[in-house]
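Practice problem: predict the structure.
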Amino acid sequence: MALSREDLLEAYRRMKTIREFEERVHVEFAKGGIPGFVHLYAGEEASAAGVCMNLTDDDKIASTHRGHGHCIGKGVDVHGMMAEIFGKRTGTCRGKGGSMHIADLDTGMLGANGIVGGGPPLVCGAALAAKLKRTGGVAVAFFGDGASNQGTTFEAMNLATVWRLPAIFVAENNGYAEATAAKFSVSCEDISTRAAGFGMPGVTVDGHDFFAVYEAMREAVDRARNGGGPSLIEAKLDRFFGHFEGDNQNYRAPDEVKRIRAEKDCLQRFRARVASDIAAAELDAIDADVRKLIDDAVAQAIAAPDPLPEDLTTDVYIRY
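Answer:
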């Protein structure tokens, strides 16, 4: 399906917002103003945007510890996210979740997750609800190459196939499970080939290519919405930063990140692909808008109030 000019501009805006958000969080974390652990998504923007451009607010996603990009791709408010990362009361989760646990049910973001392989079972529940209620909705689980080896992921894929759920499993294979290279820990070259063991379609795409991800996701969403059951998509991509902020990355080649930034930047690839349809000046204008957005988000987060002691016991148990 051809993307409209407006779609292309929106796709670029989402990817650029993710990139600027992550680059700025990297800077702010180094200043010491952000508590807890931070895992950055920079370099993987085409995957989040390509997947989420196919979804609506009624569709659900479950994320990972590296969840900022998925949140932005799904439409979570950037100001609320930044405040959450700074641990402030105005944050998306009132400062209680931090970087690894951002959630926003209004946009269908079930939550980032510090548990490796924690998202796929949640997605089965969301997909089952959509099927029983006949809403036409789908549920998407993002997970990494490390989580591709978890029993929770296998069990979720099996259950999704047995119950023919409108679920889509997106394996973002950035080559490392923390510091362990996938070639040492994953038994197959392509994670997508594991789909055959569960009786579902599987495909591997270039995760640096927004259009490849978008098209694979479009087919999977159409299949799920029309009762065809689950799919597995593997996006092979690279992260620009370490596993977490402070990671010395001794497990990577000395020039690895420099080469990736120079040769595999999904934003530069996108700009080159749309050059005949969209003027560079229009994309530059988006760049400027996004930088202002992130500046505003940081300023508001720093000025926002901290949670109060009495906030500690709120939002712990649901009230009926």
